């Protein structure tokens, strides 16, 4: 952190002392850069998340962020900083992957599952596209509702599950997770927006009986870098499935219920988490006063109540910047897909040691 002013240095020192003594008046926010870009005349965009522990922090407005370039505060009036809608650069899809093996279809659980799936799809579908797929003992998953924003088609497709007859009554749970991730990525890749975020929600009432794919193979697939911006949740029902094995699938959250009467409640909890997680994304756009050379940027997020702050740092080039023409902060960004900083989230998901990613700084 390169604050060159005496008052700035004192501020950092005091904050550090308070944090160490336990007298700080707020917790630390984790601000993680996902991507950034700059373009003539002098536009800068930074796409990032703000979280506190594992909880998303949403609702921060543009004035809650301070921008420093080379240690000097950039005037909000000069920078015209604003928060753009993340949807101009990012696409988010959710796949609901439901177990329709014989234990579901032959035990009278299908209606309760369909009702819960409909409520889930309608809730999450208000903010992003939702696709519904089914699996049984077969090697492939089966499309029930393709990714769509048309709510009527979701309901109609799900009603067909009430009389679903599995091709194979066994349970290919591990294989279905792998196929679900691949299908979700394939659908996301069709969208032209540069940043893609997928959510897979898996429902099952039992363990993998088909043994088509090993547990280790499934875990290796989940850990692949191509799914670094994906989240996976799991919902389990009944005594047959173990929470330990369910947690291996739901690396971002699991819900285990004892009977089908509570399936709706479990889906509601997952839907609420998905809604909240979407709010952690921010796309900050501003007009830099820099006109040449490399510059170190620090973006500080400040939440007033309860008080907390955090920051990220990265470097950009302002070579050849103007104006003219005049910088417009409403201009949509064009991100380099290779320029990402999601290592911290990936490390947490894989149960690593929690090494900080470059571009992510926590301040208390």
Written account of the structure:
The protein has 10 helices and 16 strands. It is of the alpha+beta class. Strand 8 (129-135) and strand 9 (142-148) form a beta hairpin. Helix 4 runs antiparallel to helix 5 (151-159) and helix 4 packs parallel to helix 9 (263-278). The relative contact order is 0.22. The model is unreliable at 1-26 and 342-364 (pLDDT under 50).
Q: How is this fold's topology laid out?
A:
Elements: H1 6-21, E1 29-39, E2 43-52, E3 55-56, E4 65-69, E5 72-73, H2 76-79, E6 82-84, E7 90-99, H3 102-105, H4 110-124, E8 129-135, E9 142-148, H5 151-159, H6 173-189, E10 195-204, H7 215-222, E11 230-237, H8 243-249, E12 254-257, H9 263-278, E13 281-287, E14 294-304, E15 307-317, H10 343-349, E16 360-363
Parallel strand pairs: 7-8, 7-10, 10-11, 11-12
Antiparallel strand pairs: 1-2, 1-16, 2-3, 2-13, 4-5, 4-14, 6-13, 8-9, 14-15
Helix pairs in contact: 4-5, 4-9, 6-7
Structure keywords:
31% strand, disordered C terminus, six-stranded mixed sheet, 28% helix, disordered N terminus
**Structural class designation:** alpha+beta
- Return residue spans where pLDDT drops below 50 for at least 5 consecutive residues: 1-26, 342-364
SSE series = HEEEEEHEEHHEEHHEHEHEHEEEHE
Largest sheet: 6 strands, antiparallel
């Amino acid at each position: 952190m390169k604050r060159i002013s005496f008052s700035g240095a004192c501020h950092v020192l005091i904050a550090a002392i308070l944090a160490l003594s336990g007298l700080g008046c707020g917790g630390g926010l984790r601000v993680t850069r996902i991507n950034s870009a700059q373009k003539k005349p002098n536009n800068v965009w930074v796409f990032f998340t703000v979280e506190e522990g594992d909880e998303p922090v949403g609702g921060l407005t543009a004035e809650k962020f301070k921008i420093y370039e080379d240690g000097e505060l950039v005037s909000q009036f000069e920078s015209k900083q604003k928060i753009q809608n993340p949807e101009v650069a990012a696409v988010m899809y959710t796949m609901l992957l439901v177990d329709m093996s014989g234990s579901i279809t032959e035990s009278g659980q299908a209606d309760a599952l369909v009702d819960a799936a409909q409520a889930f799809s309608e809730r999450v579908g208000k903010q992003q596209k939702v696709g519904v797929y089914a699996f049984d003992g077969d090697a492939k998953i089966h499309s029930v509702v393709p990714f769509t924003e048309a709510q009527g088609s979701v309901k109609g497709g799900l009603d067909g599950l009430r009389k679903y007859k599995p091709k194979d009554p066994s349970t290919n749970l591990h294989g279905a997770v792998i196929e679900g991730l691949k299908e979700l990525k394939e659908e996301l890749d069709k969208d032209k927006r540069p940043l893609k975020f997928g959510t897979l929600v898996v429902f099952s009432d039992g363990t993998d009986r088909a043994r088509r794919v090993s547990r280790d193979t499934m875990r290796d697939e989940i850990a692949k870098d191509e799914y670094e911006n994906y989240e996976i949740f799991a919902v389990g029902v009944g005594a047959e499935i173990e929470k330990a094995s369910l947690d291996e699938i739901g690396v971002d959250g699991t819900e285990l219920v004892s009977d089908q009467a509570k399936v709706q409640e479990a889906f509601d909890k997952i839907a609420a988490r998905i809604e909240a997680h979407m709010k952690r994304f921010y796309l900050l756009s501003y007009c830099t006063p820099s006109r040449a050379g490399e510059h170190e940027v620090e973006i500080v997020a400040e939440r007033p109540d309860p008080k907390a702050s955090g920051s990220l740092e990265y470097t950009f080039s302002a070579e050849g910047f103007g104006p003219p023409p005049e910088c417009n902060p409403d201009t949509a960004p064009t991100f380099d897909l290779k320029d990402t900083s999601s290592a911290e989230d990936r490390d947490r998901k894989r149960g690593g040691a929690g090494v900080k990613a470059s571009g992510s700084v926590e301040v208390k």
